[in-house]
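Narrative summary of target 7.
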Amino acid sequence: MGERAAWRPFLKQWSEEWVAAHGSEQDEPLAEEVVRNTWLGFAPASEADVAAAEARLGRRLPPSLREFLLVTNGWRDAGSFIYQLANCTELAWLRDTDDRSWIDVWERLAEDQEEDDQDEEAFGVREAKVLARSLRLSLDGDSAIMLLDPDDVDEDGEWAGYWLASWSGEGPERHGSFHDLMRQQWVSFHAIRKPSGATRDHWDAEVERARREALAGAVSGPLAVFAEAHEFGRERADVLSAQLKALVGDWRQLVADLMWWTPKKDDLLLSPLFAAELLPLLVRHDQLARPLELRPLPRLKEYAPEPVRALIAGYEARTDEAGFRLTFGGGPEFDAAVHAVADPLAAHPAFQAPDRPAAPAGTDIVTRHIRGTRDIGSCREPDTDPLSDPANVRAARAALCDEAWPELLAALRLWRPVCEDHIAPISLLADPVLAELITPARGNEILATPRGPGPGVM
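Modeled conformation, tokenized:
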């Protein structure tokens, strides 16, 4: 009874959010009883109904499905791509239904793979076996189906659940139970439709709480919250998470993913965070881009709103001017403190010398060796400049970074967010010298340092 009691409020909330998200223009009309009762389900099945289904199928149903049926005998709209779930009399083995073509497709795929690979575990073999023995849960969908595997049972008697769509490009997606499978459909519905209601309000509050914790120096907790909120389609979580991850990982890939233009990104592009932090990183990303690498900046120049395209053009024009200096978002005091660290480093010979051998294209190794001396023909002494050796250059840079690091870390006390979505000084990474100074370990130290005006101010 305990699990049954848990199903009812969850399904009621799902129904309320589904009705709230329904659009009269793009969606099919809701059934009259769904609107009247705010309930996507039906009347409960009886214990006798469930027992009859089990007798017909020859198996006791897993606990979460049994309890679900005793709350609602069937279900409408299990996510955006499954239109109806079976009731007790409609539950059937997939192989015995009109949908057995799913099995046929995967068996043919398995046969083709076995012929090519001679591998019993080739892609499609296991999947075909799962489908051939599975219980069909869904009656109708957008080329998608939901199943339970009676041969994959956990210690609680739960059968593994599967969601499969012909258009997904993936195989059957496994979940630990019917309950887990249903919850994932609910989560996916939120990610796609973003309905108003208790779930959205909860995750928006959680993201805000995690933002404040991140500014106070927490890292792992906020990242976990942002990751879960992302599953529910809370886009603010992605913006905040990318800032934390950029300082400790591959900032170039993170920025490319975050800033790849879609119409949904326009609010971010028009925010102070873009102008202060993301635009310098985008321009630097484009300068470093390799052939065939994802480059979001040209796409933004073509598709972003006109004010954003004008902002990008103006910024790029300034970078071409003599004496241009990056401005680091976080306020003028922070900017001045950062330049007090970065400018002397950039002017040092170690940061102006290459950290790897350079030679004209086509120069062979003998010529490069000869050019390591001042004039062999005149028997002049070899070049004694320590910065002519790339290993010495790297060592000198590392020593200079070690010396400058405490000063940069101290500058964080002056940092202020430019808006409520700003939680880390990521524009530092747009400066080549500072990007070298800020190792992942130091990035973690930045994130562990309380930043900004303090709790309750922003």
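The two ends are 46 Å apart (CA to CA).
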